[in-house]
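To: structure desk
From: M.T.
Subject: fold request, one chain
Message: Could you run this one when you get a chance? Sequence is below, nothing fancy, just the single chain.
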Amino acid sequence: MPRIRDLNIYQSQLPTGPHNGITDVTGVAVGHFTLIAGDGAWSGNGPFRTGVTLILPHQGNLYEEKVVASVHTINGFGKVAGFEQVRELGNLETPIALTSTLNVPRVADALMTLAIEQNPHIGLGFAATGRQGYASVNPVVGETSDGFLSDMQARPIGLAEVRAALTDASTGPVAEGVVGAGAGTSCYGWKGGIGTASRVLPERVGSFTIGALVQSNFGRAEQLTIAGVPVGLHLQPPPSKRVEDGSIMIILATDAPLDVRQLGRLCHRAAFGLARTGSTCHGGSGDFVIAFSTANRVPDRPDKLVVQQSVVYEQQIMSLLSLAVIEAVEEAIYNSLLMAHTVVGRDGNTRYSLPVEEVVKVMRRFGR
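Reply: Done. Structure tokens follow.
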């Protein structure tokens, strides 16, 4: 399946990183576990078209060396976990997990287990380390629904599957489309999934990288817009008529030394990239953004103030950072569509892949 740049119908103002993905931010890794099992009618234990995707800000002990982070809710009809502590403290202390809606508690529990294995003092206190107090852990999990194609009631994603995604995590090119948390999702009436893209800022402002990863599960076919062209209005409607409001998870990573407030500003800009693809954020959608910076590590419960590198006056580069976010989110959504193949799920429900040749014909008619 092609990425959008392979089709020569899309251009950006800013250049991409070498992978054109979130892993272009040094140290960031992504891993998937994909569960494709069973066919035919719903049984109470399948069929499954689901999975989990992990985004790791770095390869070390994330609980001991947290990263600065911010979250934003574009529209709140969703079941994300861990957002309130990120809002309050401004950091991440577990990998970010993406999964299916009803799997959120099981995946959060798995992240807790993995954190405790790496940090045995969690929940017991710091007697062995000399620090004071009792430690808890805040797993961060996002979701969209894959219930049209998969048996969500059975909640098949737990500790073993999260471990497998962690083992799969790599800093190289990111698998896209029908993988991990995108195995059973839909986008603009077609098959959606995981997509990613990146942008690199000019050398004069530091050559910082912005990476985006999306789990796309939203929109109606007639809304699909690509590079300003109302493609969805000029395609034959997808054979599967059932389309719900849906949701999207957007993950942003950067190596720019931004603080919580500055990352929050970037979170808000992600909505512009989403809108470029045609979304109007339906009232029944859950549209969430998580952004983090890898530039600084935040030690767990330091006994003195920690001085960190920061962008003092980001106005000078905020327009470029915003453009990078908007373009990367937009392109990541296109990639999530174009890299997805047709999937037949439970009860024969089918979500068809976006017809690439027809998309190219429409774009050509509009001079792209």
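Reply (cont.): The domain at 4-35+44-301+309-351 is CATH 3.60.70.12 (L-amino peptidase D-ALA esterase/amidase). Let me know if you need anything else for the meeting.
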